[in-house]
Amino acid sequence: MVTGTGGPTALESELRALAGSVPDPELPVVTLEELGVLRAVHVSGPGRVEVELTPTYTGCPAIETMSTDIERVLHENGIPDVSVVTVLSPAWSTDDISAEGRRKLAEFGIAPPRPHSTDGPVPLTLAIRCPHCGSTDTELLSRFSSTACKALRRCSACREPFDHFKEL
Amino acid sequence: MNSTPTDTDPGTGAGLGAETATAALALADDALILSHRLGEWAGHAPELEEDVALANIALDLLGQARILYTLVGDEDELAYLREERAFRNLQLVEQPNGDFAHTIARQLYFSTYQRLLYGRLATGDGPFAALAAKAVKEVDYHQDHAEQWTLRLGDGTAESHERMERACTALWRFTGEMFQPVGDGDGLDGVDRQELAESWLSSVTAVLRRATLTVPEGPRSGAWTAGAGRQGLHTESFGRMLAEMQHLHRSHPGASW
Predict the structure, then answer these.
(1) Is residue B3 one of the residues assigned to a domain?
(2) Residues of the signal sequence (chain A) (predicted)?
(3) Residue A145 domain boundaries
(4) Are the beta carbons of A58 and B6 separated by less than 8 Å?
(5) Cβ-based neighbours of A69, under 8 Å, separated by 6 or more
(6) β-strands A38-45, A48-53: how paired?
C-alpha cells in the first residue's frame, strides 16, 4: 500500500476505471463501480497493483468471480502483478449504488433499492415501483429471492412478479 | 469452500489472543452448523419461495463462518476435519430441523440472539466489529423472516398454532446457553451477557405474545437444560449431521468442482 500520497495518481485513476468497468457477475447490467463495491486501486510498485473490493453480502459467492475478472482485465492492460483484497469496513450499503446503476437495474426489470432515510423524525416511506408497468401498487412475496440481495415482489396492477434489490 | 476467499481487513489476520480465537471459533461454529441445517431444507420447504429464503439465510451464515474461521486458521480444516468434541457451537443450532415450526422457532431464538450480539459487537473496535457491522444488517432480515413466520403460524390455524407452540416449548431449554461464556475468558469484547439475555427475552416475548403463543416457562439453565455445546458436548443428532457434512471432504481430500 502506498503511503503519503495525496490522492490517486493518473495511472491509478485509469486502472480504477478499468477495474470499475467489470460487469457484476450476477447482475451484468451494472458495473462494479456502479454497484459501489470497488473501494480503491493502489499502485504499490512497478507493474504491481492492489485492488480493494467489498462484498455486498457477507456470503456473496460472486466476490471470487469479481476478483478473477478484475485480475484478468488488469493483466490484459499490462499489469502483471494484481492482488485483490476484500475489505469489510465500512460495510457496503445499497446507498453505495450509483444513480446510473439504479437506472440500469430498473431498466433490466429489477426495482432498485430505496435510499435510507438520512435523518428527521418521520422517515418518508417510498413505495416500491413495478419496473414493468410503473405501478406503485406492489406486494411482497418473499424477503429472499434468486440472490440474497433481492426480494421477490408482485405487481398488483400488471400481476407480473419482479425482483427488488432490497435495502441493506 | 475450496478456495480461500481473500484476505480480511488488515490487522485482523494474525496475533489473535487465545480468548478471541475461542470466541471466533464458537461464533463460526454456530454459523456453519446452522447454515448446514438450513441447507437440509433445500427442495423440502413448504413452498418454493421458502426453499429460496432458507438457502439465502444459510448462505449469509456460511459467509460469516468463513470470515470467522479465517481469523482462527484454515477454514476447510476447521470445518471438515475436526471431530465432534472439537466443535464449540450452541446445541440449539445443531437441533434437527423437525417440522417447519421447529425450524422457525430455532430461527427466531437464534436470529434474535445474533442480531443483538452483533449489534453490540459492531459498536466496539474489537476484532469482530467489522464483520458484525456488516452481518447485523443481514441478520435483521433473518430475524424479520422468523418473526413473520412465527406470527403467521402462531396466529394461524389451530394446527399451525399448536405446532408452533410445541416447537417453541421444545427448544426453550436450549436458549440459556446463548448467554453463557464462550470460553474461560471473555473473548467477546466485554459484551454484557446479562443485559443481552434480558434484551433477548423481552424481544422474543413480544413476538410470541403478538403471535398469540404462550411464552414457555421451563428452565433455561441448570439441570435438565442444554448448555455444554461451548465445551464441546453435543446432542445425539449432531454426530450424524457432522458425518454427512464432512463425508465428502474426508473421502476425497481437496476435491473441487
Answers:
(1) no
(2) none
(3) 97-165
(4) no
(5) A22, A23, A25
(6) antiparallel
- CA distance, residue B52 to nearest chain A CA (Å): 6
> Is residue A62 included in any domain, yes or no?
yes
Can you give the pLDDT of all 168 residues of chain A as single tens digits?
445 556 889 999 999 999 999 999 988 999 999 999 999 999 999 999 999 999 999 988 889 999 999 999 999 999 999 999 999 999 999 999 999 999 999 999 999 998 876 555 544 557 899 999 999 999 999 888 888 889 999 999 999 999 999 988
A117 and A56 together in one domain: no
Q: Which residue of A has its CA nearest to B140?
A: A168
- Asked if residue A131 and residue A74 are part of one domain, the reply reads no
Interface residues from chain A to B (CB-CB < 8 Å):
53, 55, 57-61, 63-64, 67, 84-93, 141-148, 152, 166, 168
- Which chain B residues are within 8 Å of A167, Cβ to Cβ? none
Shared-domain flag, residues A74 and A42: yes
Does residue B8 lie in a domain region? no
ipTM over 0.85: no
CATH of the domain at B245: 1.20.1260.10
* Facing residue for B63 by CB, picked from A60, A87, A168: A60
Taking an 8 Å cut-off on Cβ atoms, the answer to whether A144 and B62 are in contact is: no
- For residue A71, tell me if it sits in a domain: yes
Instruction: Find the CB nearest B49 among A53, A57, A142.
Output: A142
Domain termination site, one of A27, A62, A86: A86
SS (H, E, C) B61-84: HHHHHHHHHHHHCCHHHHHHCCCH
Instruction: Return the residue of A nearest to B134 by Cα.
Output: A91
Q: Which residues contact A40 (CB under 8 A, 6 or more apart)?
A: A16, A51, A52
